[in-house]
Specification:
- The complex is a heterodimer of chains A (110) and B (308).
- By secondary structure, chain A is an alpha/beta fold.
- Chain A has 4 helices and 5 strands, in the order βαβαβαββα.
- Chain A has one domain: Glutaredoxin (3-Layer(aba) Sandwich).
- The longest helix of chain A is centred in the middle third of the chain and has 16 residues.
- The radius of gyration of chain A is 12 Å and the shape is globular.
- The longest helix of chain B is centred in the C-terminal third of the chain and has 20 residues.
- The radius of gyration of chain B is 21 Å and the shape is elongated.
- Chain B folds into 2 domains: 179 residues, FAD/NAD(P)-binding domain, CATH 3.50.50.60; 105 residues, FAD/NAD(P)-binding domain (3-Layer(bba) Sandwich), CATH 3.50.50.60.
- Helices cover 22% and strands 29% of the residues of chain B.
- Chain B is of the alpha/beta class and 308 residues long.
- The chains are: A alpha/beta (110), B alpha/beta (308).
- At the A-B interface, helix 2 and helix 4 of A face helix 2, strand 8 and helix 3 of B.
Chain lengths: 110, 308
């Protein structure tokens, strides 16, 4: 079982930008209903993609710099990072099949 | 996916208050129950920070908190949840087949509680700037617009709630409404008119959302005078209504002229064994309590159908 790990700004470079594996970052906040709604779906994805993608969560309330650096103005936003670069950006909650398709496309590219 | 088709007594489509209430009833009545939800459990009410009119919560309760509690309650009685999108339903006699994007299930009864999808504004710039200033959820994104000017588009309860929510963050809120009166309930209208931060632009429509990397301004038109104007804003919150999520049901069930499912007072649709509950049903008053009530009615009658 693999669960998304909550990280903060200080850990972002090491955990996301320098990661060897692609990383899906879930930008969220506790007061955001859709973020809490999408959380169990993201957890399922974390299990299904174990070993292929690592999953982390960034609370935009506590980490506003990281959020604004990547232009996050709406949450939930899911960004996939590959080799330190954002390669896919999903704003708002989406059906799980669509999230998977997006993730597969991001993994296949480059 | 797997070739074997899983069988249930009841399949519920949609995880908002209607579907969750139905699940509490069918699972508690010991019918094997699967709830299929495309996004996440909760429905439209999760966008409400505080639900003030659901009985039993005099202080109000968060939309997400209420629906997560409903989900726990149904799960406790044995309801299973699947996150997938339903693509079709086929009825042949007493057996119904529910197809999803990744598999299929059979059920003796199906309760459709898929709710409604938020409508888009449909103007240039909306898609381009979604997540860059265009938002459909003030409780989610309000904090990104601290001390900034924003616009809210719409005139119903959703729009007014969004505008009031934004007063916590934004410096100035313009509510843009195409008519000259609001459809929102009286108490919401009183609150919005009493708030100094909110200005209402009557008889006005948005023509275009403009900006470079993010939203900078919107182009407006007064529908009576035809006069155009520009309003500098950093955010545009869209709350222009919703549409029943029945796209995949057009060939299966009788729908009304807005696409909502026609059901009788037992919430039976035009196909025996298929029931409709909540905002997806024609004539729904679109409240959490009526959705929950629909869920219970549909569940009890689905139970009778399964046992009968």
């Amino acid at each position: 079982m693999s669960k998304p790990v909550e990280i903060n700004e200080a850990k972002f470079e090491e955990t996301v930008l320098k990661a060897k594996m692609p990383v899906l970052v879930d930008f969220w906040a506790p007061w955001c209903g859709p973020c809490r709604m999408v959380a169990p779906v993201v957890e399922e994805l974390a299990n299904e993609y174990e070993g292929k993608v690592s999953f982390v969560k960034v609370n935009v309330d506590d980490n506003p710099k990281t959020a604004s650096q990547y232009g996050v103005m709406s949450i939930p936003t899911l960004i996939v990072f590959k080799n330190g670069q954002p390669v896919s950006n999903i704003v708002g909650f989406r059906p799980k099949p669509e999230l998977k398709k997006n993730l597969d496309t991001a993994l296949a590219a480059g | 996916m797997a070739e074997s088709i899983k069988k249930y007594d009841v399949v519920i489509i949609g995880g908002g208050p209607a579907g969750l209430s139905a699940g509490i009833y069918t699972a508690r009545a010991r019918f094997s129950t699967l709830l299929i939800e495309k996004g996440g459990v909760g429905g439209q009410i999760i966008n409400s920070e505080m639900v003030e009119n659901y009985p039993g919560f005099p202080q109000g309760i968060g939309g997400i908190d209420l629906t997560q509690a409903m989900h726990q309650q149904a799960t406790k009685f044995g309801m299973e949840t699947l996150y997938d999108e339903v693509t079709g339903i086929k009825a042949s006699g007493k057996q119904k087949t529910v197809k999803t994007s990744q598999g299929q299930f059979t059920a003796k009864a199906v309760i459709i509680a898929g709710g409604a999808d938020r409508l888009k504004l449909g103007v240039p710039g909306e898609k381009e700037f979604t997540g860059k200033g265009v938002s459909y959820c003030a409780t989610c994104d309000g904090a990104f617009f601290r001390d900034k000017a924003v616009a809210v588009v719409g005139g119903g309860n959703a729009a007014v709630t969004e505008a009031l929510e934004l007063t916590k963050f934004a410096s100035k809120i313009t509510l843009i409404h195409r008519r000259n009166e609001l459809r929102a309930t009286q108490i919401m209208q009183e609150r919005i008119k009493a708030d100094a931060k909110i200005k209402i632009s009557w008889d006005t429509v948005v023509l275009e959302i403009l900006g470079d990397k993010a939203v900078e301004k919107i182009r407006l038109q007064n529908v009576k005078t035809r006069k155009e104007s520009t309003l500098p804003v950093s955010g545009v919150f869209v709350a222009v209504g919703s549409q029943p999520a029945t796209g995949y049901l057009k060939e299966v069930l009788k729908l009304d002229n807005v696409g909502a499912i026609i059901a009788n007072d037992r919430l039976e649709t035009s196909v025996p064994g298929i029931f409709a509950a909540g905002d997806i049903r024609s004539g729904s008053i679109r409240q959490v309590i009526s959705a929950a009530g629909d869920g219970a009615i549909a569940a009890v009658n689905a139970g009778k159908y399964v046992s009968g």
